[in-house]
Amino acid sequence: MQKLYYKKLRFELYQADFLEFLKEFPENSIDMVFADPPYFLSSGTFTCQNGKMVSVKKGDWDLSNGLKKNFEFHLEWIKAVRKILKPNGTIWISGTYHSIY
Ligand SMILES: C[S@@+](CC[C@H](N)C(=O)[O-])C[C@H]1O[C@@H](n2cnc3c(N)ncnc32)[C@H](O)[C@@H]1O
């Protein structure tokens, strides 16, 4: 399900499941995609930071499912993006060295 979150002249912001939302777009139709996907840095445990006990959990969406599953997650959405990007389209992806490859 998608929700129109904000709208202004020539600009719309939606809240949606990314893979579902991508299905709305025709193939080879998008010039540029910027994505900041989960880095899977959370473990659900605690660590010590500046002498204080802090949670290592940004949310369920950031919990790692193991290297293989994390990789498959990224591969699935990047493949879906590839379909809707124009042949000379651009993708920008935020990540960290442990996840971006
Ligand atoms: C690294 S954070 C990005 C945070 C963002 N740049 C910000 O400033 O709020 C990754 C985000 O991806 C979202 N996310 C995870 N799976 C998603 C999905 N299937 N569809 C859409 N968003 C998803 C999470 O809820 C989380 O907010």
Write up this protein.
With 101 residues, the chain is α+β, with helices and mostly antiparallel strands. It has one domain: Vaccinia Virus protein VP39 (Rossmann fold). The mean pLDDT is 93. Bound molecules: S-adenosylmethionine.
Per-chain topology:
Elements: E1 3-8, E2 11-15, H1 18-22, E3 30-35, E4 45-49, E5 52-56, H2 67-84, E6 85-93
Parallel strand pairs: 3-6
Antiparallel strand pairs: 1-2, 4-5
The structure holds S-adenosylmethionine.
The site of S-adenosylmethionine has 8 residues, from helix 1.
Helical content class: 10-25%
Approximate strand percentage: 35-45%
CATH class: Alpha Beta
End-to-end Cα distance = 30 Å
What's the total helix number?
A: 2
Q: Report the CATH superfamily.
A: Vaccinia Virus protein VP39
DSSP, total strands: 6
CATH architectural name: 3-Layer(aba) Sandwich
Query: How many independent structural domains?
Result: 1
Bound molecule types: S-adenosylmethionine
**What structural class do helix, strand and pairing data support?**
alpha+beta
**Uncertain spans:** none
CATH fold topology: Rossmann fold
User: Main sheet?
Assistant: 2 strands, antiparallel
Mean pLDDT: 93
Across the major sheet, the strand order is: 1-2
Shape: globular
Assembly state: single chain
Order of helices and strands: EEHEEEHE
**Roughly how many Å is the radius of gyration?**
17 Å
